[in-house]
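Page 47, continued from p. 46.
Same chain as before, 219 aa.
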Amino acid sequence: MNNLKKVIVALDVEDLKKAEELVRVLKDKIDIFKIGSKLFTAYGIEAIKIVTKYGKKVFLDLKYCDIPSVIADAVSIAQKHNVYSLSLHSLGGYEMLCSAAAINLRPKLWAVTILTSLDNRNLNQLGIRENVNREVVRLAKLAKKADVDGIICSPNEIELVKKFGLKVITPGIRISREKKDQKRVLTPQEAFSKGADYIVIGREITTAKQPLKIIEKIV
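Result:
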């Protein structure tokens, strides 16, 4: 897979027309577009439709975390709306992950480990005494046992989890390595060199006047 096929563009915008324009401009370069909480809360299923109508794939990044039966139903509904893949939160537990994985003809499932906005101090505040690396590995093993398709972690932990044979989507990608609201970040080139299967990039593309040039720079 070439690097261009590994780039997922996050449509983290509030305007549906802006989201569709991004898909239209990037559709010949990008196969997968991420729909997160912001766009989905504003427009729901309509946000999914603007991606699928161009023949592109939807990564529905809502980080589902609830009781197993509710999550199983949500995954089934996502499948009916032609969602290609979606995210679950590993902290929902093994049974929850298994309930999602058991759905027939389901979307691909990606289990979130530790958000890129958290560091060791934040984990301690939550009562988690392990450091980020060990907690990511623990949750990655849980996700693999539940038979999901892969995990989501920061680029800093890619090498730690790839040894378990897991596919990895990594957010926390910054062309300049400027951290802003994410604490564990790397550049696209660094993430690819560590073995990332997919990288997610949002604002550096969505806020650019010429998003295609940013894509070319990444590749």
